[in-house]
Amino acid sequence: MLVSAKEMLDKAKAGHYAVGHFNINNLEWAKAILITAQENNSPVILGVSEGAGKYMCGYKTIVGMVNGMLEYLKITVPVALHLDHGSYEGALACIDAGFSSVMFDGSHYPIEENIAKTKELVKICREKGISLEAEVGAIGGVEDGVVGKGECADPKECKMIADLGVDMLAAGIGNIHGVYPDNWEGLSFETLDAVQKLTGKMPLVLHGGTGIPADMVRKAIDLGVSKVNVNTECQLAFAAATRKYIEEGKDKSGKGFDPRKLLAPGFEAIKATVKEKMELFGSVNKA
Ligand SMILES: [Zn+2]
Q1: CA distance 37 to 76
Q2: What's residue 61's pLDDT?
Q3: Tens digits of per-residue pLDDT, 33-75?
Q4: CA dist 161 → 110, 137, 185, 225 (Å)
Q5: For residue 105, which of 49, 85, 272, 281 is within the disulfide window of CB 3.0 to 4.6 Å?
Q6: What is the pLDDT of residues 98-137, one digit of tens each?
Q7: How far is the CA of 173 from the centre of ligand 1 (A)?
Q8: How many helices (H) does the chain have, and how many strands (E)?
Q9: Residues taking part in catalysis
Q10: 187 has which bridge partners?
Q11: What's the 254 CA to ligand 1 centre distance in angstroms?
Q12: What's the DSSP call for residue 258?
């Protein structure tokens, strides 16, 4: 059964480790992440962006697929199904479809509007036992032309949003989505520390986990990050393994064209990436 992310994140915050949020794109992704979480006795969060939601034929399809997998694969570790960077409408649609966790990304709104919309969602999520992530200080991406440094959130605004009763808070601390540019200046631990001091026990979320050096990730976890989002890294691992299979001509030998064979190396590559991240985040055996 899907669970809210609240309990797993509160435990992570208290235990100074982080739970991995891994974005899913299809059946192989969801299966690889769930099996790896079970094998490593780790809690896990499956992230779904609105774009991936459309790709997978809607939130209800995803809820059906993931719930079916939990039963079929006999998954007993805590699993949350979470909307990533949701709009207000998207959050409502996911709550309706059976997600156990949602993110409302109101970071592009003026802070007053972000607060008003987040407040409404806090009320709805509380009633349904669904965890809610809010965001302050937009997290940039290289695709948006951001170079050098991602945005840093205002710690006072973080406190205002945290006080609304959300369960986890994403704050921009110089992190970026996608692959980091060569001239990236690194995470702003100064910002993270200031946010942590004002928000206390609130689990903080680090987006853009791909390509942040391991020591920086560890330090961020030490400073209060309890959820790390990983997306691009699994995509790169999947693509590299699939490319290798094709380039070696394996699809042309025997029944190598069978999708269950063709997608197997990529599937294994996702598993290896997820395992490596769980070890780095310290969530192994924390289920
Ligand atoms: Zn993000």
Answers
A1: 9
A2: 98
A3: 999 999 999 999 999 999 999 999 999 999 999 999 999 999 9
A4: 12, 11, 27, 16
A5: 85
A6: 999 999 998 888 889 999 999 999 999 999 999 999 998 7
A7: 12
A8: 12, 10
A9: 84
A10: none
A11: 41
A12: S
Positions in the chain whose pLDDT score sits under 50: 143-147
* Cβ-contact 1, 24 below 8 angstroms: no
Q: Are 252 and 188 in contact (CB under 8 A)?
A: no
Domains of the chain, CATH where assigned? 6-281 (3.20.20.70)
Q: How far is the CA of 246 from the centre of ligand 1 (A)?
A: 31
At 243 the pLDDT is: 98
Nearest to 171 by CA among 215, 134, 197, 131: 134
Q: In the prediction, which pLDDT does 143 show?
A: 44
Q: Please report the pLDDT score of residue 283 as a whole number.
A: 98
Exposure string of 65-104, with b = 16+ CB inside 10 Å and e = fewer, is bbeebbeeeebebbbbbbbbbbebebbbbbbebbbbbbbb
> Rounded to whole angstroms, how far apart are CA atoms 212 and 233?
11
By residue count, the chain amounts to: 287
Q: Find the helix or strand (DSSP H, E) in which 117 lies.
A: helix 111-128
Question: Near ion ligand 1, which residues have CB within 5 Å?
Answer: 207
Cα 5 to Cα 19: distance, rounded to the nearest angstrom: 9
Give pLDDT, residue 233.
94
Q: How far is the CA of 179 from the centre of ligand 1 (A)?
A: 13
Could you tell me how far CA 229 lies from the centroid of its own chain?
3
User: Do residues 20 and 36 touch, judged by C-beta distance below 8 A?
Assistant: no
Q: Are the C-beta atoms of 23 and 274 separated by less than 8 Å?
A: no
